[in-house]
Amino acid sequence: MKKIGFFVGSLRKDSYSKKVAESFARLLPDGYQAVFIELGELPLYNQDYDDFGPVPESYQKFRGEVKQLDGVVFVTPEYNRSVPAVLKNALDVGSRPFGKSVWDKLPGLIVTVSPGAIGGFGANHHLRQSLVFLNVPTLQQPEAYVGHIADSIAEDGTIIPGTEQFFQTILDSYLAFLEKLTK
Hints:
By secondary structure, this protein is α/β, with parallel strands linked by helices. Helices cover about 40% and strands about 15% of the residues.
């Protein structure tokens, strides 16, 4: 069983990103387990915690959870043409202490979500830039910019079938990419 970690860049209870991440998780085939990693409990990264202690328990828990993963899926909105602070903070917490990054070589997928037309393009590319440095090989194609997300959500809160088929195409490509890298 391969564990796929889902990192949602929005803390909002009814966030579009969370609904999209849940849809992707439901589409995982047998042999894969979705693991949603909590980001909202992490204090802002401060190197003094690692250098002088005490290291917050939430840092230790987060790092331990990520170490157990076989792949990572980031589903995030765009805030001010970049990633939300909660997601960037999680990247920073997991990348430290220096030389002990939990992200190293974890195959990644980025899905950006927006009520606007460009689908979180800025966040998608800023996140890619950070993941290159963290040595997270990231699926290049198909790209996953989900614009006008409100039009893709049914009244019951689920993703409409046409959009879910698009998600399945992305997920299938990601899982093939993950399998190629983790053999």
